[in-house]
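Researcher: We plan to redesign the surface later, but first we want a full-length starting point. Tokens attached.
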């Protein structure tokens, strides 16, 4: 009698945190990196300007548009998106390899379309966590409170966040970020059980 081998669910190696703008994924990513040495941050490439507190090679690889386009042509990206008009962001294949070669798990802070691509490419090896505000109104309020936005860019961000909220069902887990302390704790537990830490 022929024995059928049961497919083993793959142990995730990649954790993508994704969320509408303003839902707090960067804070949660930083917290997880501080908590678990087993995780390493996937440094994305971007064409946007470096902010004052940011370091090239640590927060992002800051590239010119020309260099970014060359890397697209050379198929160096797992995924890339024009997240904001004229501003490109992408995950380099070499970055994922670098981290996996170190024997660590990869953690991404990535927009919802990028997270969808990561899931398509890596299947069960990737776990995508969608971070959600308690309600759309709370999210819009948080965006309004960010003093960095002009009226026009705020409207764009709100429209974008509205669209991004519709992605919730596509991912593996949902984490509601209402009280930050609770969300950080929930995120820790989720990672612990997902990666058997
Ligand atoms: P920021 O400019 O505020 O650092 O990031 C803007 C948005 O781009 C955030 O939603 C962030 O998660 C997303 N992002 C950062 N890196 C990547 C990437 O490699 N690929 C994609 N698709 N989005 C990214």
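Model: Full-length starting sequence:
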């Amino acid at each position: 009698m022929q024995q059928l081998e049961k497919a083993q669910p793959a142990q995730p190696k990649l954790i993508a945190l994704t969320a509408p703008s303003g839902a707090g994924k960067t804070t949660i990513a930083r917290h997880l990196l501080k908590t678990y040495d087993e995780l390493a941050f996937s440094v994305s490439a971007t064409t946007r300007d470096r902010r004052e507190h940011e370091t090239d090679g640590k927060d992002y690889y800051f590239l010119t548009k020309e260099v970014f386009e060359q890397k697209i042509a050379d198929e160096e990206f797992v995924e890339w998106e024009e997240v904001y008009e004229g501003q490109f962001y992408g995950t380099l294949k070499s970055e994922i390899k670098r981290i996996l070669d170190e024997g660590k798990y990869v953690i991404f802070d990535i927009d919802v379309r990028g997270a969808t691509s990561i899931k398509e490419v890596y299947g069960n090896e990737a776990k995508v966590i969608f971070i959600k505000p308690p309600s759309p109104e709370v999210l819009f309020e948080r965006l309004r409170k960010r003093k960095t936005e002009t009226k026009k860019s705020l409207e764009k961000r709100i429209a974008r966040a509205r669209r991004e909220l519709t992605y919730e069902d596509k991912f593996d887990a949902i984490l509601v970020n209402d009280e930050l302390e609770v969300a950080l704790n929930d995120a820790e537990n989720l990672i612990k059980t997902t990666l058997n830490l």
